[in-house]
Every structure is written in structure tokens, then in C-alpha cells.
Amino acid sequence: MSDLLPGPVEVVGAGLIGTSIALACRRAGIDVLLSDTSPEHLRTASGLGAGHPKLPGDVAALVVVAVPPDHLGEAIEAALDAAGEDTVVTDVGSVKAAPLAAVAGHRALSRYVGSHPMAGSERSGPLAASADLFSGRPWAITAHAGAAATAVRRVATLVEICGAVPVMLTPAEHDKAVARTSHVPHLLASLVAGTLAGAAPEHLALTGQGVRDVTRVAGGDPALYSQIIGGNSEAVAVLLREVRDRLDLALDAVADGDRAGLESLLAHGLAGTRAIPGKHGGPMQAVAAVHVAVPDHPGELARLFADVGASGVNIEDVRIDHDPGRPVGLVELDVAESRAEELLAALESRGWVTHR
Ligand SMILES: NC(=O)C1=CN([C@@H]2O[C@H](COP(=O)(O)OP(=O)(O)OC[C@H]3O[C@@H](n4cnc5c(N)ncnc54)[C@H](O)[C@@H]3O)[C@@H](O)[C@H]2O)C=CC1
Ligand SMILES: O=C(O)C(=O)Cc1ccc(O)cc1
């Protein structure tokens, strides 16, 4: 337990994010109070060991509001109304200007500090939660000008307890940033995924890893993401117009057979992939993919990872694709470019079928 966060922590909204935070706090030995409008989620989260239902009279040191975006304002206000004089309130909503505007006139505004963990999944509810969800992930802290320094420190302590990396931003800057890194990518993933709905099975049989990578986030709950994206409409619209202009250029280049124009658009995209920070927030490391054919039998992945471990090469990322015609998985290991040849040789010497 931390001196800066003595507990208890109250989590309002025991879904994916709320229960994950609660589990991380419990792991750190902090008492957690839970509340949720869904008795089922409350029961499930309590059963997972995330805490116990809040009782009348319980007072938290920190309230974490983790409800869907459309309900953030009212839930933050209710938390500020009910809290003790020393209680700090944060929320973890994916947009930050709107909930702040909803409570801007509150007498206890100095004890509210917004935040946003940049980690999650396509799944919802407490059963998808994990204490490790935020490990090594950025977590924005969006203090407004009138926030008390003690309140900001308490929220930063929560971020540290969850193993995340704090990033200080104003609410407006945050909303512009996530329009670019989360909301527009989500919308475009959904548009691409939509072209697959109802497609001919013989076309879908040619699905590879690329389309899975591009469409993964589109698997998220449409009701939640319409609130997230709709709650950041101004910043999202600015970027969507930029994308629309490029889409028009792409259409013209394809229709006119303009290879140079097409290459220029693709090169711009490549530059974007290189701008994405690497693991742990550092500069992007040059990685190379090593592909390994793995028989679809119990224990084969464990054997492969043990052999990679024995070679001393670190795996930066891993993906698995399936050969539709054979009982074989194709494992793609991303490793530092400078170590790829060494890994290929080590795996081949142990009998694995590999290629770059
Ligand atoms: N899903 C994700 O990957 C991420 C979501 N967020 C944000 O976290 C918040 C929660 O999202 P998830 O955990 O994914 O959703 P979820 O659907 O898994 O959980 C939301 C929970 O809030 C409860 N709830 C709804 N209205 C309530 C109210 N008025 N009072 C108390 N409980 C209420 C629901 O019953 C549910 O248990 C959202 O604001 C979202 O923008 C932030 C980072 C990542
Ligand atoms: O699934 C992913 O890769 C995500 O990026 C999850 C996510 C979803 C919503 C957020 O507000 C923040 C993170």
C-alpha cells in the first residue's frame, strides 16, 4: 500500500476497465469498494476478488469512475457530491473534455482529475478484466487548471500501482491525440471490416493475417464506441476530412493507373508506421519477422518458445496464422533486425522449418 494512496479505492462501473483497476489495487493490498448499476457485474467482479460492494457510509480515498462515456458526467458529479472532504475523483473515459465540461461548475472541482488508460480490448464486462491490463501502457492524466496538486499525485499513484506509464496532457490536447491514435483508426477499421460482412465464403477463404491486423479493433462493442467517437466529434471530424482527401487521391490514382501517385500515398503510410513509438515508449526498433511452421499439436508452441529462449534472442512481438489446408500454424516472430539471421540459424539447427 502506498502512503499517497492509503485506500480504500472505490470503482464505479465494474466492467472491463473498472474491474481491471480494482484487481490491480487488490494485488497491491489496497481495499476496494465496488458499485455498478448491474447487480450481475457487481457479483461477478466481487467473485473475481476485485473487491466488495460499497456499503452506505463507506468513504474512499480515491473514486475511479469507469462507466460508459455518456454517463461519465453524471457519475463524476455523483461521486463528488457523495465523497468525503478529502476524497479525490478520477474517471477513465476515452474522451476528456466532455466529462470535465459536465462538472466544471462543481464546488469540489479541485478534487477531480480526469485520466485515460491506453489499454483495453474488444471485450467488455468484468470477465474480460485482468490485473495486468495496464502493464507498461501509457495512461493519460488530464489535470485541469484548478486541480489540487495532491489530487493529481493521488491519480498518478493509481497509475503507478497499475504498472502504467503516466502521460500528462490537457483535456483538449488529449482529445486531439486520441482522435489520431484511437478514434479515427477504430472508425476506419470498422469501415474496412464492413466490406467483409456478407462477402462470398470463397473470397473470405483467402483471409490472411493482414486483414486481421487491420480490422481487430472493429470487434469492439458498437454501443460503447459510438459514445467514445461521438463524444470527440470535433477532433475526429478534422482528421476524417484529411483521410477523405487522401481517399479521393487514392481513388483517382487507382482509376487513372497513376503508379507514382499510388506509391506516394503508400510511402506516406509507411512513414506513419515508422512514427509509432516502440515498446515501452522508446523509439521504434527496426524489427524483422521470422516465420516458423509449427505443427498443430499440444506443446509445440512451448517447445518453439523454449528454443527461441535458448538462442538468447528476445521476441518483440508474436502472431499466429493458420494454414487453411494443413494442420500447421504459421508463427511470425518479430525480433530485432540485427538478430534475425542468428535466430533463423538456431531454429533450423533444432529442426524447425523457417523462412523470413
Ligand atoms: N474498452 C476499452 O478498451 C477502454 C475503455 N475505456 C473507457 O472506460 C470506460 C468503461 O469502459 P469498459 O470498461 O470497456 O466498459 P464495460 O461495458 O466493460 O463496463 C462499464 C460498466 O459500467 C456499468 N455502468 C453503466 N452505467 C453505470 C452507472 N451510471 N453507474 C454505475 N455503473 C454503470 C456497466 O454495468 C458496466 O459494468 C468507458 O468510459 C470507456 O470509454 C478506457 C480505456 C479502454
Ligand atoms: O484494443 C486496443 O488495441 C486498444 O487500443 C484499446 C483501447 C480502446 C479504447 C481506449 O479508449 C483505449 C484503448
Instruction: Provide mean pLDDT, rounded.
Output: 94
Domain module tally: 3
Q: Count of DSSP E strands?
A: 12
Secondary-structure-based class equals alpha/beta
CATH architecture of the largest domain: 3-Layer(aba) Sandwich
Radius of gyration: 23 Å
Low-confidence stretches: none
Which word captures the global form? globular
Topology as a string of helices (H) and strands (E): EHEHEEHEHEEHEHHHHHHEHEEHE
Bound molecules: 1,4-dihydronicotinamide adenine dinucleotide, 3-(4-hydroxy-phenyl)pyruvic acid
Cα separation of the termini: 47 Å
Keywords: Amino-acid biosynthesis, Aromatic amino acid biosynthesis, NAD, Oxidoreductase, Tyrosine biosynthesis
Domain Prephenate/arogenate dehydrogenase: 7-284
Domain ACT: 289-356
GO molecular function, one term: prephenate dehydrogenase (NAD+) activity
What attributes characterize this protein structure?
356 residues; alpha/beta; Rossmann fold; 6-phosphogluconate dehydrogenase C-terminal fold; Alpha-Beta Plaits; 3 domains; four-stranded antiparallel β-sheet; globular; binds 1,4-dihydronicotinamide adenine dinucleotide; binds 3-(4-hydroxy-phenyl)pyruvic acid; ACT_dom; amino-acid biosynthesis; Prephenate dehydrogenase
Describe this protein's structure.
This protein is 45% helix and 16% strand. With 356 residues, it is an alpha/beta fold. The chain has 3 domains: 9-170, NAD(P)-binding Rossmann-like Domain (Rossmann fold, 3-Layer(aba) Sandwich), CATH 3.40.50.720; 175-199 and 208-275, 6-phosphogluconate dehydrogenase C-terminal fold (Orthogonal Bundle), CATH 1.10.3660.10; 287-355, Alpha-Beta Plaits (2-Layer Sandwich). Strands 3-2-1-4-5 form a 5-stranded parallel beta sheet, with helices on both faces. Helix 2 links the parallel strand 2 and strand 3. The longest helix is centred in the middle third of the chain and has 24 residues, at 171-194. The radius of gyration is 23 Å and the shape is globular. The N and C termini lie far apart (47 Å). The model has no long low-confidence stretch (mean pLDDT 94). It binds 1,4-dihydronicotinamide adenine dinucleotide and 3-(4-hydroxy-phenyl)pyruvic acid (ENO). It catalyses: prephenate + NAD(+) = 3-(4-hydroxyphenyl)pyruvate + CO2 + NADH. This is Prephenate dehydrogenase. Residues 7-284 form the Prephenate/arogenate dehydrogenase domain. GO terms for molecular function: NAD+ binding; prephenate dehydrogenase (NAD+) activity; prephenate dehydrogenase (NADP+) activity.
